[in-house]
Amino acid sequence: FDLYCSLEPCAMCASAISFSRIRRVYFCLEDKKSGGFINGPKLIYSKNLHYKPKFYYGFKENIFLDLMKNFFKKKRN
């Protein structure tokens, strides 16, 4: 299976993705605060994970950045 998401999965999600043996993960934006793949604990590089999915990121970043900002702006107002 492949997983598509707008934001980089957190550390707990990265572990669940590994345990589920999802082949590939595609995400649009990095999560600099609580990401689990390329930011934060970088679990995907951990020797403790037995299965390491391939991951791809940076697709249409500007579009999704605006989308996320507008979503949370509406939530706060």
Automatic annotation (TrEMBL):
This is Nucleoside deaminase. InterPro entries: CMP_dCMP_dom (IPR002125), Cytidine_deaminase-like (IPR016193), MafB19-deam (IPR058535). It holds the Pfam family MafB19-deam. Signal peptide: none annotated. Residues 1-40 form the CMP/dCMP-type deaminase domain. GO terms for molecular function: metal ion binding; tRNA-specific adenosine-34 deaminase activity. GO terms for biological process: tRNA wobble adenosine to inosine editing. SUPFAM superfamilies: Cytidine deaminase-like.
